[in-house]
């Protein structure tokens, strides 16, 4: 019987992380994943998504639990404020992707993290989505991410964020764009 | 005393919606909004965002409640599965933005909705974020949105989705990209 001693840093099991990378190197087809959200309209601008399963490592997988995420517009935008707005979920997705990534990168590099917080802000001129100006885009004009971090020396921390940004799925999609197709079926 | 009779369709107060559009037309500076998410790293790939306030109509505004959103990676990706993954939040943001928008568009056009559900799927090859291939991008290769809708006639419903897509903040950002700046401060 072989026992493996696992190294854990910043809450990341780096032994498992490197073993996963080795497994994917040996079988690159394990790296193909498909993620999914299933949304149901409730009323007005209120709707909710269920997040439960995904495909990866050659099989259908389930999260440990199913999550329901409510979205709505605030009262000032004629909604009922039953949940965060869609664009706030997008800001959260960006913060979360960069933060999960930097924790992995730091652990892999032997860099210790103490505290990591970030604020992500997006400026949007609603003349775009209201259809009141052809010169204003629908989305955020820009997004600003501000990290505050403590742990090992500041230069190492900065490089860890830089590497996370280089390998962030959400940062890539937001800055480079992604093809989206929309299909409608009656039923 | 003047009383206004409000018209509500699909749960959307169209009287208030048109009044809001008129108010913004008269004072376009009311349309400048800033949305925000504040994220805190917990451990490993687990982190959480707080969504509570935003700026709009010339003032700081608060949601009716603060929301906390947990994000994590699943066990198969060496996380603890304490919440949806960042990319699943992004899929939810897209579904929610298109669905909130189409409810508004339908109400404004006098189109009745009965049921609206959608599935949003994104295919991602993790060789990109793992740094194991220079030819694979970090984000989804493509995103597929599938709506199933009932209500007024299918052609009207299809046009309502089309218009929502034309005016969706999240669809715009994902397909056209958005400038993102990342700053790190020690502390």
The oligomeric status of these chains comes to homodimer
Please tell me what the overall shape of chain A is: globular
**Which percent range fits the helix content of chain A?**
25-40%
Q: Rg of chain A to the nearest angstrom?
A: 20 Å
What is the number of helical segments of chain A per DSSP (H or I, 4+ residues)?
4
- What is the string of helix and strand elements of chain A? EEHEEEHEEHHE
Largest interface: A-B, 130 and 131 residues
Strand content of chain A: 35-45%
- Biggest sheet descriptor of chain A: 3 strands, antiparallel
Identify low-pLDDT runs of chain A. Answer: none
User: What class do helices, strands and sheet pairing of chain A give?
Assistant: alpha+beta
Protein architecture, described:
2 copies of one chain form a homodimer. In chain A, 31% of the residues lie in helices and 37% in strands. Chain A is of the alpha+beta class. In chain A, the strands form 3 sheets. A 3-stranded antiparallel β-sheet of chain A has the order 3-4-5, with no helix packed on it. A two-stranded antiparallel ribbon of chain A has the order 1-2. Chain A has a two-stranded antiparallel sheet with strand order 6-7. In chain A, α2 crosses α3 and α2 (86-109) packs across α4. At the A-B interface, β2, α1, β3, β4 and β5 of A face β2, α1, β3, β4 and β5 of B. β6 (113-125) of chain A pairs antiparallel with β3 (32-43) of chain B.
């Amino acid at each position: 019987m072989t026992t493996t001693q696992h190294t854990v840093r910043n809450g990341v099991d780096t032994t498992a992380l490197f073993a996963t990378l080795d497994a994917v190197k040996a079988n690159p087809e394990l790296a193909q994943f498909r993620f999914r959200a299933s949304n149901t309209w409730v009323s007005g601008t209120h709707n909710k998504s269920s997040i439960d399963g995904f495909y990866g490592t050659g099989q259908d997988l389930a999260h440990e639990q199913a999550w329901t995420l409510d979205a709505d517009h605030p009262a000032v935008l004629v909604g009922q404020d039953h949940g965060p707005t869609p664009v706030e979920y997008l800001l959260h997705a960006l913060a979360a992707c960069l933060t999960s990534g930097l924790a992995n990168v730091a652990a892999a590099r032997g860099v210790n993290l103490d505290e990591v917080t970030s604020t992500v802000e997006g400026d949007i001129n609603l003349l775009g989505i209201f259809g009141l100006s052809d010169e204003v885009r629908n989305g955020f004009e820009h997004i600003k991410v501000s990290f505050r971090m403590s742990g090992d020396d500041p230069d190492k921390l900065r490089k860890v964020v830089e590497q996370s940004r280089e390998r962030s799925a959400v940062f890539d999609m937001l800055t480079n764009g992604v093809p989206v197709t929309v299909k409608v079926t009656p039923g």
